[in-house]
C-alpha cells in the first residue's frame, strides 16, 4: 500500500472517529450540562427542552410566610411553604413547583391554565403552589427570588393569582435577569390597581419581606430531589409532560384531571370564584420568545435555550433552562 493510500485511510478513520466523538459529546450535552459547577439535567417537556437544575442556595434569611400559607404534605416539610387556590373540600389536589422565570413553566401554564381555572371554580380542584428559584442558580441571579417574593406579597393582599398570571405574561427572556431590579417587578404589579395603591405591598416587595419563605421553598425543592420546574402532581402522582404540542399537553392534562375526579368519587366540592385573568400587561422586559398571557395561546417561537442546548421545539413549546412540571394531592 502506498504512503498516500495509508494517509488517506488514516484520515478517513480519523474523520469517522471525530464525527463519532462529536455525536457522543452532543448527546452528553443534550442529557447533562454543567453550569457553574452544578450538574444540570436536560428533560423533554411538551416536546421542548428544559433544564432541571438545583434551586439556588443562599444564606438563610428571616422566614416570614405569606398570609394563609399552608403546610403541604406533598412538600414533606413542617413549614407552611404552599399557597392554596380553590376550596378545601375539592376532591382533586394538585401541587405545582414552579419558577416565574422558567420558560417551560410559562409554556405549560399557557396551555393548561384556562382548564384548571374551570376545575377550581367548579369545586373539583384545589391547587397548591410552591414558587422556587431554579433559574437563579443558572445565572447567579435574583429575578426568580424577586418574582416569587412579589407573588407572596400579593398573597398578603389577596391578589396572588392575578400577579401569578401577570408574571408569566411578562416573563423576561431567560438569558436576561431584569427582575433583579425589583422596580421591574413592581411595574408589572402596577397593572393590578389594588397592588399599585398599596404601600404595604410596595414595601413588602422592595424590602424582600418573604425572601426567606421563597428560599425555604428552594431548599425544600433540593431536599425533595425534584427533577426541575415545573413539577406537577395530581393526587400524589407526578405528571409527565412529554407531548409534542400545546394541544396534546392540554389533552393529557385534562385526561389526568378527569381520571382523578372520577377516582375520587366524581362529586365536586364548594365552588370558588377566581379573579378574572389580567387582560393587559406592560411589554417592557417581556420574553423575546413571545411570552403571552397565561390565558392566551402558547408561544410558537421555539427559542433556543440560553445554555445552547438544541431546541428542536415544535409549535407551542420552547426550550429553556426551566425544568419539568409536577403537581400533587395534599
UniProtKB/TrEMBL annotation:
Residues 80-245 form the Thioredoxin-like fold domain. Residues 264-330 are annotated as: Disordered. Keywords: Disulfide bond, Isomerase, Membrane, Oxidoreductase, Redox-active center, Signal, Transmembrane, Transmembrane helix. This is Protein-disulfide isomerase-like protein. Belongs to the thioredoxin family. DsbA subfamily. One of its GO terms (molecular function) is oxidoreductase activity. Pfam families: Thioredoxin_4. Residues 269-330 have a biased composition (Low complexity). The chain crosses the membrane at residues 33-56. InterPro entries: Thioredoxin-like_fold (IPR012336), Thioredoxin-like_sf (IPR036249). It comes from the Bacteria.
Amino acid at each position: 500500500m502506498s504512503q498516500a493510500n495509508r494517509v488517506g485511510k488514516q484520515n478517513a478513520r480519523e474523520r469517522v472517529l471525530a464525527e463519532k466523538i462529536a455525536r457522543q459529546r452532543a448527546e452528553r450535552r443534550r442529557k447533562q450540562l454543567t453550569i457553574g459547577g452544578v450538574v444540570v439535567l436536560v428533560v423533554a417537556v411538551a416536546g421542548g427542552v428544559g433544564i432541571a437544575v438545583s434551586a439556588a442556595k443562599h444564606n438563610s434569611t428571616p422566614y416570614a410566610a405569606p398570609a394563609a400559607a399552608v403546610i403541604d404534605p406533598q412538600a414533606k416539610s413542617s413549614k407552611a411553604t404552599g399557597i392554596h387556590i380553590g376550596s378545601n373540600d375539592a376532591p382533586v389536589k394538585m401541587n405545582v413547583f414552579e419558577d416565574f422565570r422558567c420558560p417551560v413553566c410559562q409554556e405549560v401554564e399557557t396551555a393548561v391554565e384556562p382548564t384548571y381555572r374551570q376545575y377550581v371554580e367548579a369545586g373539583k380542584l384545589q391547587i397548591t403552589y410552591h414558587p422556587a428559584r431554579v433559574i437563579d442558580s443558572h445565572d447567579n441571579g435574583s429575578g426568580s427570588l424577586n418574582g416569587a417574593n412579589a407573588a407572596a406579597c400579593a398573597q398578603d393582599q389577596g391578589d396572588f393569582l392575578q400577579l401569578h398570571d401577570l408574571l408569566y405574561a411578562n416573563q423576561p427572556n431567560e438569558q436576561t435577569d431584569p427582575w433583579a431590579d425589583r422596580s421591574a417587578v413592581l411595574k408589572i404589579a402596577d397593572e393590578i390597581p389594588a397592588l399599585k395603591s398599596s404601600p404595604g405591598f410596595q414595601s413588602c416587595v422592595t424590602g424582600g419581606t418573604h425572601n426567606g419563605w421563597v428560599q425555604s421553598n428552594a431548599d425544600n425543592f433540593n431536599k425533595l430531589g425534584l427533577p426541575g420546574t415545573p413539577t406537577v402532581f395530581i393526587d400524589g402522582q407526578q405528571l409527565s409532560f412529554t407531548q409534542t404540542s400545546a394541544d396534546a399537553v392540554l389533552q393529557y392534562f385534562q385526561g389526568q384531571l378527569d381520571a382523578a375526579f372520577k377516582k375520587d368519587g366524581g362529586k365536586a366540592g364548594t365552588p370558588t370564584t377566581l379573579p378574572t385573568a389580567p387582560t393587559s400587561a406592560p411589554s417592557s422586559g417581556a420574553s423575546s420568545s413571545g411570552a403571552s398571557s397565561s390565558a392566551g395561546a402558547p408561544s410558537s417561537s421555539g427559542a433556543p435555550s440560553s445554555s445552547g442546548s438544541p431546541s428542536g421545539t415544535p409549535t407551542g413549546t420552547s426550550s429553556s433552562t426551566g425544568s419539568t412540571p409536577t403537581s400533587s394531592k395534599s
